[in-house]
Predict the structure.
Amino acid sequence: MKILLMGNPNVGKSVIFSRLTGAKVISSNYPGTTVSFTSGYAYLDGKRTEVIDVPGTYTLDPTCRAEEVAVQMLEESGSDIIVINVVDATNLERNLNLTLQLLERKIPIIVLLNMWDETRHKGIDIDVKKLEELLGVPVVPTVAVSGEGITDLASRISEYYELSFAKTGNMETHSTEDRWGHIGTIVAQAQKITHRHHTLLERLEEISIRPIIGLFFAAAVMWLAFRIIRLIGEGMIDYVFDPLFSRLYAPLIMRLSASLGGSGFVHDILVGKLIDGEIDFTQSFGLLSTGFYVPLAMVLPYVLAFYFILGFMEDFGYLPRLAILLDNIMHKIGLHGQAIVPTILGLGCTVPGALSSRILETKREKFILLTLLAIAVPCTAQSAMIVALVGRRGGGYLLIIYGILVALWMGMGIILNRALKGESPELLLEIPSYRLPSISALAKKLWMRLASFLKDAIPFMLLGVILMNIFFTTGLVDLAARIVSPVLTRMMGLPKTVVVALMMGFIRKDVAVGMLAPLELTTKQLVTASTVLAIYFPCIAAFVVLLKELGIKDMAKSAGIMLSLAIIVGSLINLFWRV
Amino acid sequence: MRASLVEMKSGQSGVIVEIMGGPRMIARLDALGFRLNKRVRKVSSMMMRGPVVAEVDGFRIAIGYGMALRIIVEVMA
């Protein structure tokens, strides 16, 4: 026995899923947040039941990968299932299209009228009893975000168990036209709409999709987001993490260093090299010094700040507006507006960005998007380190690095769009209403993302530091340096010691940038190395996901583009930058 | 007066009378509630061949320029 949560995109399936299973999943206010299925277990009447959160779909005739997954899930789940069809109560007519298609398949169904609270604001009055009668299956009004109606749902599911009988859908199979006709009569009998006034949020909605004001609005939003991220990130570093590390943690490490004798293999792995007899958290490169300092004190504050802002924009419903405003720019690089969502997620971390590319329809779009994501969209961890290291030499140098990346994103996009056969599909996107995010939902989402950052970052960081120490002592670094030195030194003007950072970059980009710190690079070299590190290859976690999404052949092509671009860009900076 | 969604002015309403597209495009629009004889209101459109935002049944959809060009509406005065 399985429970499948199905419904149109952005109706709150994932929130219902969390309510039923207690599992933690990311939910937002835009279509396509869930792109692959998530499963968990609910305890209903003491019985452990599998619940599956299926990606949203408008219809059982799929139009993109995420929708295909949805239909496939339904077809492969066998007959021992209950489908909980989550319906946006404020949008009954369109949502019932999927409901009727499910009913036609004669499977046991419970219909949830979610966002029930919003029907009142919108002047919509639905007669639940009447709807139940017309559909022939149970209908339960819910407000997933507050939990209203969930107990009622649970008891309805239990009823199905106890009677070991479920109301299956019992609709004749319709042609598309007849189905809409049928929906029309159902809606006419079960729903009344009364007039009401526009709310403040709706006025804001108007502004953000007007052509010129909308662009100014977007620019203001982006500027504000950037300022807040810096404010939170820098504030936490200056007032919390730096004092914590330098006043509390450093003396502890110094005592450890002394007890290990101040040098030696074990000392160098754990504490790292002492600089002028002191611990330098950015340069010592021991497990317990730099290994903890980089992820916790340099990167975590920015990750937290970024996801705080992103979470707010997601739940408010702003991202689809950006998709509209940027649609024609995105068309120039062979994508459409919706591709801005994976790109923004990629500014946090390439992994969720790459997964979210499944909202795109064609292989061509995915190739362009993912290649650009790997080349020109640095993750927050990497950016935090670049800002820390390069920013120290002057803010203008940051502009050079990010200017190059933006130009690459646009330029490579245009080239790929010209070079690859096929055309870019048109944007077709439902625009959700703005909603005021719930603080607890935001906090929960932020915590999940931070936890997943720490879960990935700490082990890889430690692995990286250990590996680098081994590479150094075994002479592998020297070997690698000799192999790449023609490219590094002659073409890019970098010392061959930079090879250490390039090797580390396969494991984690933030530590890789951090490894540039002790190398005593000139500003020009630091800018070149940081840019090359962003372009040349994704870190291991991102690589695994890219490989899965692209397949071996496309991944090889994409990797070829990354490596050659890194060499070209590195050499060009070296060539044109005269000190 | 007949006009495509692109030609309509923001704020104008009408009834969809023709969708000039393949079965796939028609199916995608249909799933979103965009189909023949539906009342539609144009909300706004972006400059330089940007998408059109249109409203059906009180909810909004962004439609790419090329697709909007092929949705023909009998505009009400």
Q: What stands out?
A: The interface with chain A takes residues 24, 27-33, 35, 43-51, 53, 57-67 of chain B (CB under 8 Å). The mean pLDDT of chain B is 91. The longest helix of chain B spans residues 23-31. The two ends of chain B are 8 Å apart (CA to CA).
